[in-house]
Amino acid sequence: MPISFHNADHPYRCPQRRLIKAWLTDVVQSHRKIVGDVSIVFCTDAYLLTINRDHLKHDYYTDIITFDYCEGPSVSGELYISIDRVKDNANTHKQLFKNELKRVVVHGVLHLLGYMDKSKADQTQMTHLENKWLTTFNTLNA
Questions:
Q1: Could you give the CA distance from residue 120 to residue 51 in angstroms, rounded to a whole number?
Q2: pTM
């Protein structure tokens, strides 16, 4: 399957990989697109901060950085996810780690589908879509 999981400098092993791949494929196909190569890379805060500084010229921690390699109907890219940041965000928002991680993963895929989150309206739409797809995942997994 073209969606794959990798580790940069963090040993996290994602459970339910097959189910997550199928779920993300549904997200992409619901937008009348096809899944190309999507790499989900788990890393530490320090690793992602270096990427943020080197590639985006931002000097702050973030939970995800998405590199978009989409061409035509094919959705491809790299999602770099800081496990440290996801854990902190889960605690801050009083969420389970596994739910926060799925939110971040689908957030990255939504970016690959063209959704942005710079404006307040875009953030509202992104949160709505994240919630919709998290509910769909939970329904599939019930």
A1: 25
A2: 0.95
Report pLDDT digits (tens) over 105-117.
999 999 999 999 9
Q: Which H helix or E strand runs over 137? A: helix 120-140
Query: What Rg do the C-alpha atoms of the chain give, in angstroms?
Result: 14
Domains and CATH numbers, the chain: 3-140 (3.40.390.30)
Question: In angstroms, what CA-CA distances link 29 with 15, 25, 82, 141?
Answer: 23, 6, 26, 19
Burial letters for 39-73: b for 16+ Cβ neighbours within 10 Å, e otherwise?
bbbbbbbebbbebbeeeeeeeeebbbbbbeebeee
